Amino acid sequence: QSRANCVAWSPDQQHFAIGLVDGNALLFNATKWDDPLPVFAGEAITAVQFSPDGRQLAIGGTGLHFWDVPAESFSSPRRELIHHVTALTYSPSGSQLAVSLSSKKLRLFELNQQAIVGPGQSIEHHSRVFFDYAPCLPAFTLQEDALVTARPRSADIVNIQGLNNIHHFPTPSGISGIAASADGKRVAVSGPKHLQVWNTDNG
Q: Is the distance from CB of 24 to CB of 41 less than 8 angstroms?
């Protein structure tokens, strides 16, 4: 038995996935707990996440893989990322994927415009890069026009199109978790010794 690094439930609660150190993701049907489908990614898996419709499973290690759940096959070739994925977040519509990396960079992929990348090629030209963000889970606003992210000592709401800060919220220490309310009007930020909730309308 290999050590588990990460786990995720599908939105309809019919499946859940576990990412293992040995390079396998185990895809379970919630009604058949003893018969998981192994998905071999070929590298230690550090993050898994289902798309909002539950039809796609994003698998992250030092590369990015997309598994077609109904077809039980990979839907595209592996995409090289070099650094380990620490978190994966789909936008509410599933058209974008935010990828946090151990290098403290955040990549934003437009999934409906992805180009096929050949062996040995870098994917960075087919994504947008945000620098110097802490490797915790980012969050999209409901309208998908902004991304709530974490720097080492602040939480930022970043306009996706212009890559400019809409709001900047300082924190007393490092950030371990961040979340936005469904309407995007409030941001909760947690750290080793603090929990803050910000109103994005007035700061």
A: yes
